[in-house]
Amino acid sequence: MTDEPQLSDTLYRALADRLAAGMASGAFRPGDRLPSVRVLAARENVSVSTAIAAYRELEDRGLIVVRPKSGFFVAAAWRALPEPRMHGTRPPLPSDVGVNGVIMEILEASRDPTVVPLAAASPGPEHMYPAAQVRRELGARLMREPTLATTYRMGAGYEPLRRAIARHAFTYGCLIEPDELVVTNGCMEALTLALRAITRAGQTIAIESPTYFSVLQIVESLGVKVLELPTNPRHGVAFDTLEVVTRTPGAIAALVLMPNFSNPLGGRMPDEAKRRVVELMHQRGIPIVEDDVYGDLHFGDRRPKPMKSWDRHGNVVLCSSFSKTMAPGLRVGWMAPGRFRRDIALLKFTTSVTTSELAQAAVAELLASGSYERHLRKLRAAFARQVARATAVIGESFPQGSRVTRPEGGFVLWVELPERVDAMALFHRALAEGVSIAPGAMFSASGMYPHHIRISCGHTHTAAVDVALRTVGAIAAELASRPAQ
Amino acid sequence: MTDEPQLSDTLYRALADRLAAGMASGAFRPGDRLPSVRVLAARENVSVSTAIAAYRELEDRGLIVVRPKSGFFVAAAWRALPEPRMHGTRPPLPSDVGVNGVIMEILEASRDPTVVPLAAASPGPEHMYPAAQVRRELGARLMREPTLATTYRMGAGYEPLRRAIARHAFTYGCLIEPDELVVTNGCMEALTLALRAITRAGQTIAIESPTYFSVLQIVESLGVKVLELPTNPRHGVAFDTLEVVTRTPGAIAALVLMPNFSNPLGGRMPDEAKRRVVELMHQRGIPIVEDDVYGDLHFGDRRPKPMKSWDRHGNVVLCSSFSKTMAPGLRVGWMAPGRFRRDIALLKFTTSVTTSELAQAAVAELLASGSYERHLRKLRAAFARQVARATAVIGESFPQGSRVTRPEGGFVLWVELPERVDAMALFHRALAEGVSIAPGAMFSASGMYPHHIRISCGHTHTAAVDVALRTVGAIAAELASRPAQ
C-alpha cells in the first residue's frame, strides 16, 4: 500500500468502515448493488475520489466486487454471519484457575514452524520492523550514547523512551508524566507486576469472559481466583453484574479488562461504558488493571481512549507494549501504575532490575524518528484487510449456525461454532492437517467455551492462509454433521 | 594493561596472589624485605621474568615498593587487617523479611551521579563492553538474521545463545545441555523465578549470612521467611548448622547460596564443602538455588566450579548472568533449573514470555566471537588490582579494630568496624560528603550487621576513589572515638 496524504487516508477508510459495518449488519446482502460513486459522494459529503478510494478499499478487503459498466456489488462470498451470543449469563462464581496444562500443551503443539499459524495472536513478521531498520536506528543511538547499557540504571526505564511513550499516550487522551511510567519486559511482565502488587493468593479478581489466556496463566501462578463476567463485544463487560459482584467489600481484589479490541472478542467498549466502570471501581476502592496492547490497531478513524484517560485517582493501572506493533522479540512494554507506582517500581526492581537498555533504546529511536505513525497506518490497513478476508472465508466455509465477531481493531476473530462441534477435537484434527487454531478452552477458567475458537489474522492473507481457513471450516462442518453420540 | 601471552599471564599473577596472601596472613609485615627476584624464581620454580612480573603486579596493586639497589619491600601503607569474625553463632530462627524500605531508601539516596559510588556492586562502565563493540557485533548478527526479534519465540531463549552458554559452562565443569537452559532478564529474574517455582508464602528458606540484599527483597515480595546461617568467607556456610536446621522435613523449603565470591563476603567455598552441601540437600530433598554471578571473576588461576557441577539429581538451580562481566544494561541472565525445568519455563513464559532477542543476540555474538575470554582476563586483573588498592587504603585509614575480607574474586569488600561505629550513621555522613557505601543493614533480615559496611571496588581506583575511601575511614574513626552515649 502506498502512502497517501493523511487526511484523505482517514476519510476514505472511515467511509469504507461505515459501509462494511452496514454490510455486516445485514443492511446490504450478497449480490446487492451499492450506490454509484457520485451518489455515495453526495450523500456522504465527500469528494468523488474519496468515494472511489473507499470502494477500492472494500474491494481490497474482498467485501465487494466491481462489475465493469454495471457498478459495485456486495461480494457473493460475503455471508454476514451473526455475532456470537453473550456468554456467562448464569450468575458468576469465583473459580480456581487450572488451565496452564492445557494452554501450554496447545501452545507447544502449535510451535511447529511448518504449521499455518492461526492460533497465536502474533503479527506476521512481514508486518514488523525489519532488522535492517532496527539496526540502523539502534546504531545511531549507540553512536550518540557510547555508555548505553554499561551501567545499572535502576530507575523505571530509559528516560528518552519514557518521554516518547508519554508523548504517544498524550495523542490519545492520556496525560501521563514520564516519571510515572515503568518500562517492562513486554505487556506480560506489566500484567504480572500489577497483579503481584495488587492481589494476594486466595483472593478473587474479576475478568471479562472470554479472556486473554495469559491473564489466566498469571493468576494461576499467583494462586488467585477469577470471577468471569459476561462480556459483549459491542458493550464490553456487563455493568450490572459488575455492580452486583463488587458490592461486598473485599470480595473482588481487582478488575482486569482489555476494553480496546479485547483478545479474543475484538470488542471495543463505548467511552461512556468505560467512564462508568472507572467511576464505579473508584467508588468501591477496587483497582482496574487495563491491558491496552491492541489500542493502536484501530480500523476506524480514531484511536480509542483507554480507561486510564478517565482516571483521576490513580486507580487504573494501564499496561501496554510494542509487541503487537513493532516486534514481539524486542520485549518492551510499559505501564502507568497510578497509585501503585511505588510498589510496582519496587517489584520491577526485585523481579528483573530494569528492562534491557538495548531494546529500550531501539524502541525510543523508532518512536522518536517519526516512522512509528507511518508504520501504524500501514499496519492498521493490513490488519483490517486480513480480518475482512478471513471473515469472508469463514462466512463461506464454516458450517451453518456459526457466528463470528466483527472486530473494529486488532487482528483476532472469535468464532462460535454449532454446539455439536467439540473445539478441542477441531484443534487436534486441524493440527494434524497442518493448521493451528486456539480452542475456547484456553479462554475460560470454568470451561465456558467448548465450541468456540479464536482465529488470528495477524499474517498476510496468502493462498496458504486461505486454504488453512477452509480446512478448519471443512473439519468443523464434518464435526457438526456427525450424529449426536 | 597490555595483553601478554596467556601462560605467563597466569603464572605471574598466580605467584603475585600467593605473595599477597602471605602478606595478608601476616607472614610479611610492612617494611619487610622480600626475597630477591633470583631467590624467588628458584624457590617457586619459575623464570626470572615471571618473578619480576609478579613483583611488578604487586607494585601495581600498591602492596610493595621497589627501593632501587636495595630490593623489594612490603609497602609501609600496608596494614594487614584481620578478617571479620563469623557471625550468627546464636541458634538461627526464621525471620520475616522487612528490609525493602531501608534498602530502597539507601539505593535511591546513592543514585546521585555526582557521588563516588562505593555502594552498588556494579563494575565501572570503563570495564564493560563499549557500545561501539556491541553495535558492531549485534549489527553483524542482525545482517545474518533479518527476522530477529520479529516473532514471538516462546521457548526458553535464543538457541545460539543457549549453545554458547553451554559451551562456556563446560569449561568450568558444568555439563548442561542447551535445551535445559532458560535465558532470563538478568540473574535477578532467574532468582525470582527459582524462588517462585520452589517456595510458597509462609515457608522458610535458608540463606548465608550476610547475604546479597536482593535475595532478601525477593523473598520479602513473596512473603517467604529466611533463616540466616553463619557463614565464613573461607569455609562457606556452616555445615553443622545446616545439618541441624534441615533435619525436620519441611522446615526449610530451599537453600540459597552464592558459593563463588559471595556478595558481600567475597568468600569462596572449598570444593569439598560444596560437594557435601549438594549431597546433604539431595538426601533431604531440599533444592539449592545457586547464584554464580561472580564465578567468572576469580583472581587466582582457576575458575572455581559451581555446586551445580556436583549435582547428579537436578536438585541445584544454577543462576547467573553477564551483568557483572559484559554490561548490566543488557539484562541477559540464565539458569539451569534442573528438575524444576518445566515449572520454571512456564513461570518465565507467564512472567515475561521471553528475553529481549536483541540483547540475547548481542550476548551470543560477543560469546561466539571469542573476545569474551580475552575480555575476562583484563577484567579479572583490573578487579584484583582495585580490590588490593582499596584494601591497602582501608588498612591505612580505617580506625583501629577494623577488619576486612580478603576476597579471591569479584569486586566487593566487607568491612567490620569497631562496635561503636553505627554503620547507618556512617552511611548518612559519608553520603553528605559525596560518597556512597552499603551499610550492613541491607544484608540481614534480623539486623545482624549494625557496624559493618560493604565497599564496592568495581570502579577504577582513581584519585577520587582513593579520597572517598579515606573520607569514609576518617568519618568511621571519628564515630569510633566518640564517647559512648
Question: Care to describe what's here?
Answer:
Two copies of one chain form a homodimer. Chain A is 42% helix and 13% strand. Chain A is of the alpha/beta class. The first copy, chain A, folds into three domains: 6-74, Arc Repressor Mutant, subunit A (Orthogonal Bundle), CATH 1.10.10.10; 100-127 and 373-481, Aspartate Aminotransferase, domain 1 (Alpha-Beta Complex); 131-371, Type I PLP-dependent aspartate aminotransferase-like (Major domain) (Aspartate Aminotransferase, domain 2), CATH 3.40.640. In chain A, strands 4-11-10-9-8-5-6-7 form an eight-stranded mixed beta sheet, with helices on both faces. In chain A, α10 links the parallel β8 (254-257) and β9 (288-291). In chain A, α1 (6-25) crosses α3 (48-60) and α7 packs across α11 (341-352). The longest helix of chain A has 27 residues, at 371-397. The model of chain A is unreliable at 1-8 (pLDDT under 50).
